[in-house]
């Protein structure tokens, strides 16, 4: 069996908030456990303060946990998009990053051209970062992360500033990374943004993995070839489950319209039979 790319076991991380003499301890992660396998893209959804960024920092080895354990492969943390070095071209910015890695004692010389090509940015390699669109800047951040040849990418809310077309392009790029065996953690405040990108979505609440309510809203679909339809749909919506001749999709992080659109794009004839609160038990179709 292939070893996991990341294992977090009962991880606790606390911060001190405030100023000396007037501060309080804040628990960002409260006994969180999570396993990520190679070639898997796990979405982390949750509101502000849920612990998403702290989880990524611990997974990337930047923040040590106060309790629990973190074991994983070489990881790279990609922060929310910024405008660092906006007057440098993409190639010049990556050359600078590669030089800094070499000065820090990294044994292997980073492959700048390879990172640019893997991020599908060869056509804008000589364009200044400040002139790139949000979608291209998001991919430039990926190119920067790829300089270290990571096996795990920790992406902090990269979709927030992207429109629908850029999200699709970004998701297609992550799919290619997964095909190369990379594991990916990607966060978003709204789990629906991760539909079609993440192979599964985990929701955080107050530093813990939230347990879905037994009566969560669920969409039930009647399809002509349920086994084939479930396999096709699971590539875009991993939470789909097959029950007899029907498919059932919990709507915690995706809308009914997005489910129906995914069914149509998969080429299946679909009829909605129920749309209500019901248990989400059933055999997983992956």
UniProtKB/TrEMBL annotation:
UniProt KW GTP-binding keyword: no
UniProt keywords, alphabetically: ATP-binding, Nucleotide-binding, Transport
Membrane-crossing segments per the record: none
One Pfam family linked to the record: ABC_tran
Domain of life: Bacteria
Domain ABC transporter residue range list: 6-231
PROSITE patterns the record matches: ABC_TRANSPORTER_2
Xref: InterPro entries: AAA+_ATPase (IPR003593), ABC_transporter-like_ATP-bd (IPR003439), P-loop_NTPase (IPR027417)
The keyword ATP-binding appears for this protein: yes
Molecular function via GO: ATP binding; ATP hydrolysis activity
Family: Belongs to the ABC transporter superfamily.
PANTHER family given in the database record: ABC TRANSPORTER, ATP-BINDING PROTEIN
Protein's name according to its UniProt entry: Putative daunorubicin resistance ABC transporter ATP-binding subunit, antibiotic transport system ATP-binding protein
Species of provenance: uncultured Gemmatimonadetes bacterium Rifle_16ft_4_minimus_37772
């Amino acid at each position: 069996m292939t070893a996991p790319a990341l294992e977090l076991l009962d991880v606790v991380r606390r911060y001190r908030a405030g100023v000396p003499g007037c501060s309080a301890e804040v628990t960002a992660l409260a006994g969180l456990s999570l396993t990520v396998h190679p070639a898997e893209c796990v979405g982390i959804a949750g509101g502000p303060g849920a612990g998403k960024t702290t989880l990524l920092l611990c997974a990337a080895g930047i923040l040590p946990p106060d309790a629990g354990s973190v074991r994983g492969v070489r990881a790279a943390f990609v922060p929310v998009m910024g405008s660092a070095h906006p007057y440098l071209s993409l190639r010049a910015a990556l050359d600078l990053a590669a030089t800094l890695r070499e000065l820090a004692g990294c044994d292997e010389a980073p492959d700048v051209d390879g990172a640019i090509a893997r991020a599908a940015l060869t056509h804008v390699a000589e364009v200044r970062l400040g002139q790139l669109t949000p979608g291209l800047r998001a991919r430039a951040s990926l190119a920067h992360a790829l300089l270290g040849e990571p096996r795990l990418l920790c992406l902090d809310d990269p979709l927030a500033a992207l429109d629908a077309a850029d999200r699709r392009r970004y998701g297609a790029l992550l799919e290619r990374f997964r095909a190369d065996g990379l594991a990916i953690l990607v966060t978003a405040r709204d789990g629906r943004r991760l539909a079609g990108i993440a192979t599964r979505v985990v929701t955080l609440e107050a530093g813990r993995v939230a347990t879905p309510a037994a009566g969560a809203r669920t969409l039930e679909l009647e399809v002509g070839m349920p086994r084939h339809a479930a396999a096709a749909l699971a590539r875009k919506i991993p939470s789909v489950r097959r029950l007899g001749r029907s498919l059932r999709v919990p709507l915690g992080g995706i809308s009914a319209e997005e489910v129906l659109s995914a069914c149509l794009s998969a080429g299946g004839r679909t009829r909605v039979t129920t749309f209500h609160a019901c248990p989400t038990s059933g055999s997983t179709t992956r």
